[in-house]
Model the fold of this input.
Amino acid sequence: MAPLIPQGIINPELTLFFALLLGIGFGYVLEQAGFSSAKKLAGVFYGYDFVVLRVFFTAGITAMTGILFFSYLGWLDMNFVFVNPTFLYSAILGGVIMGFGFIMGGYCPGTGIVAAVTGKTDAMVFVIGMFIGIFVFGHFYQSFESIYTGHFLGNIFVYDSLGMSRAWFALLLAVVAIMAFTITQMIEDRINKVSPEQIKTRPSYMLPSFLLVIALVVFLFLPEERRSNMREARPSELLAQVHDNEAYISTHRVILEIKNGRDELILIDTREQSEFERFTLPGAINIRADEILQRHWRPLFNQDHRQKVFFGNGNSSAMQAWFTAARAGYDNVYILNGGLNRMFSELFVDAEMPDTTAYNLQDRSNARFLYEARQFFLEGGLVDEQADRRQRIKAPEESEIIPVIGGC
Amino acid sequence: MKNSTLNNSAILFFTVLMVAVIFCAVTSRNYQISNRATAGKVMSDAFVSYESLYYDYLQNIDHGTLLVDLRQPAYYDVSHLEGAHNIPFDELLKRNHQRKLKKYDHILLYADQEQLSVAAQMVLLGTGIENVRVIPGTFASIMQYVVETFDPSKAFYGEDKARWDHQRFMPIGSGETKAQPERSPSREIRETGAVIGGC
Done:
């Protein structure tokens, strides 16, 4: 489902509109948390106010818990979520510069703008300084480039670097955050000389912390990804379908469709791409078994009224594809019985002349049908008219991944 | 923010997550491996070659390996590979068979149609039996090319290999040149655009 824009649920043209809404929301939260005051922000360095740490840590672990569960439940596709790549040198240097700027100016960039908007003169000077910095960096970018792009580590995750599992790292981070909240509160109280009576009347945050830990402990016991969902077919149903030969479509049916140029079947070539490029049946598209579950094929398989026919050289690759599609709950999927090997031997290799002497009328009509089809194909019946008679099935284009880079 | 608002939203968030997790657990099918993982696994390592079958399995019978004959018992009784265990295709999910299969490190399947072994492999992978591979071909071809006399020219035999030069029989495309079919549109990936923000 989410993220909403790359998945096409929200029109991409509205990106900037939503950026504005989110920006206003973010600014509002920063202002309400008291972050338009340099005194409050710098308090974290002097020990009298740790609200910055608490707000950002809370936001971080709440978002983390949400993302972990949402991606497990299939509500959020992590493939579409942009992971900020790590450039080690610029991360270290940028961190140092930002720290200095923070302690000197009393603001970080986002809070600087919030404070400037609320009319704080020092913040306006800070924002001007920020723009001078941006200008200098942009103007002398080429001198900085080697540092800026130095030591590229890719899209790495902390838990991978530490060699931990994602779930354990999340739990550990939440516990560290809760401990940090407690300890910083104690430091704050000592520096501000808060009386024990006041501490007693303070609201307790036990319940949210407790629920957070419970949720992450539950997450420890969940598998890496969901093994199945309610749309999927049961193993026993699939087994029965294969056993009762319900999964097959005959070569004659497919030959008839190709010869008459109709579009009732969706032909899906399950062979390797190199084989597909050399030859495929007219109008076929190439989807291998491991590509079937890709999201952009979903509309194709959801056309319930059309029969989707998998074919390979034999039956095996088609069976792999069929099984994957049928397990995913797609209806009306079939295997071309015998694949291209059988189709071509029936059509071109096995019988040279129609057996007009056969006693059984069905056999005679089959032989006649195959004979006509053979003549049609051998004479290049598909060559000229192919472009007109078959509309090639188009896959929807791969959704754009719109990386949104942000941070504070 | 009032403390009660914080507590209530925390309870709401927690409840939604837990209800969703429980719903998922209740509605899930009996699979131990996800469909995506199963498809990826069979694409990478589904078959054992006749060469490997002959030298690694049939020559030195290893007790960690189980040969499974998926045909009906009547055919199995007539002849089967030495040491093979009969589990008819439609009985694969029976509990006693599953229990037996879980004891082995390697399982090799064969049937009278290659695709039945492939389907059986995918069923078993789904139920969590991971070390399953398929002997390509049919029982008859295994007997002919491996058991009776090992035929090195069939060392990498498979039913899924092209037997004919398709383009010769069924010319497709326009003009005299052999037209290449269009590339699958699935592989066209548009360039990604970046929106850079920050605070």
